[in-house]
Each structure stands twice: as structure tokens, then as C-alpha cells.
Amino acid sequence: KKELTVKHINKHTCNLKVNYTKNDEIMKKIIEQNPTMSADRMIQQHVQYFLWKGQFSEADKATELLCNKRRMRYLVQQYRQEHKQESTSGESIEALITLREMFNKQDPYAVCRLNWNQMNEEPTYVFKSHTHAMKLAAAMDIDMGSPPMNREEVFFDGQHKRIDGYKTLSAFVYCPALRGLVRLASMEVQHEDSKSVGLFWRFMNEGINQFTNGAQKIFNPRKFILDAAGANFCGLEDIYWDTFKEHYPDMEWGEFIRNRVLLCQMHYKTNVNEYARRMQNPDLREEFVKTCHEMVSKKTLASYKSGQKRLENIMGLDGGITNFVRYWQHRK
Fold first, then answer.
1. Are 185 and 157 in contact, with CB atoms under 8 Å apart?
2. Tens digits of residue pLDDT in 135-166
3. Cα atoms in the Cβ-side hemisphere of radius 13 Å centred on 225
4. Which residues fall within 8 angstroms of residue 174, CB to CB, at 6 or more apart?
5. By three-state DSSP, how is residue 206 classified?
């Protein structure tokens, strides 16, 4: 027997460790034949093949050889890492180009922009949206939009596990009619940096301009809600600053950030901890963190201002932080 369960008093069990025989050559051959399958599915399909043929003795041998699922999973992961830089990316971009041509007949925004970094100096990206999303985005314009969408904020975030090896940048909006979030656009990129964020907003602006036939030059929502990351601010500035100077000549970029950009609550707490580490007085650190966390749940304006005054007093006693309240007051 390969496994033995030893039972003790008080429902304690110990499973003996099995020393599997390594059959790497056979496993690697199966992986090469089915590179996109999961390890468990490969084993199942290999055994089922012999069962379907009626070769039950061979099915038993296959089960014996491939019983070490952990080893199989490791070899699958190793194989995919080794073949990550091969020509599969080129084949994928060709498939996307073909798919884009098919979609353009029905929806020109389905696969709006794409690039492969081996064709030019631009990074790899695939920008996607759809006509209904562009209609919602146009209605969100703070100057030319229509209610209720012109009262909604846009949520921008990056997902790291949606596609293997890529980051997915997405813009969402809450739709009151649907009572849920709608994805306005998404873009797969290799790195979540200021250049990729800037490209996302550039393509968003081009899509709005195309959809409205030039009536709206840019995507201009009431508020931008972002993660507290420098790349998000730099990406916005690279694309929006020159355009906003035309629309709002008297507005400085810092004023735009204060009035139009909000940061999420989770990153607020992260930023609180970062500021707390800078404090010179360790006795005030705990009080500072506690007060900051309480500020999020304040239900009245009076209690909020009381907490704000308390934070200012703490900062007056500690010289390590000076601008925390002013910085977050405009982003709450």
C-alpha cells in the first residue's frame, strides 16, 4: 500500500509520506502535447484515453506513472516559464488583429487599439471598449453630459491576476439605471507605469472624440477616483494637462488634482501608516493612527472637524509630518 493512516486517541491522524518515483520524461512528453492544459486535466485525459481504448492494464500503468500530481504541476509551471518568450506572443497578436477586423464590422470600439513591442518601440497593449460604454462615457462629461451620468465619478484601477503575465488597467462607472458598475474600457499592459496609464487615457480621449464626432475632445468626468500611486498622477498629467489648459486656462494642475481627483479608502489607511513611520515622537504615533482611522467613520461635520483639529494638534507636537491633513482633506 502507498498510503497508511495511523489513528490515535482524540481524532488525531498522521498520513505517511509517499516516496514517488520520478517520471519526468513521460510527464514532459505529455506536457509538450498539451501545453495549455492544467496538470490535473492532462493526467485525467491521459488515463481516459486508455480507458476509452479498452486498454485497462495501460490505464493502470498510466495512473501509476502520473500519480505524483505535485510534480506534474511543477513541471507544467517550469515548461511555461521556459516557453514564455517564444513565438506564441506573435501568434496571439496576429489572432488579435484578425479578431479586431472581425469586430470592427459590428463595433469599432471592441478592440480599439493594440500593439506588440517587437514591432516598434511602444509597449505591448490591447485597449478594449464598446459603443454602449462610449455612450455612457460621453454622458459623464461635466460640461456637456446629461444626468444622472454627469454626476458620477470614474473609478480607475489595475488588476494583476486577470491575464497571466499582464496587468489590466480598467475604468469603471456606477450606472444608476443598472444599479451596478459598468466597465467603460480596459487595457492589457506589461507594466503598470505612468506611460501605460497615459496611453490608457489617451486612447480613452481618442475614443470619446471619435464617438462624439469631435464635439467632446476629451473624457471629462466629474471626478477621478484612483489608487494613491505616483504612476496614476503622472499618467493623468502627461495626457490631460495640456488639454485642460485649453478648457480651463485659469486652473493650475495642483488645483485640478485637489478638485477633481479622489483617492480610495484602502490607500488612505496605507498612507496613514507611512506617515506614522515618519513621526519623531513614538508616543504620538498610536494616537495619530487611531484618530486617522476614526476620521473615516465620522457621521457629522462637527465630529469630522473635531477630529481634524485633533490631528492638527498632534502634528503641531510632532515635527515629522506637516501636511497630512491638508493633503487628504481635498481627497476624502
1. no
2. 999 999 988 888 899 999 999 988 887 777 78
3. 14
4. 152, 153, 155, 180, 181, 182
5. helix
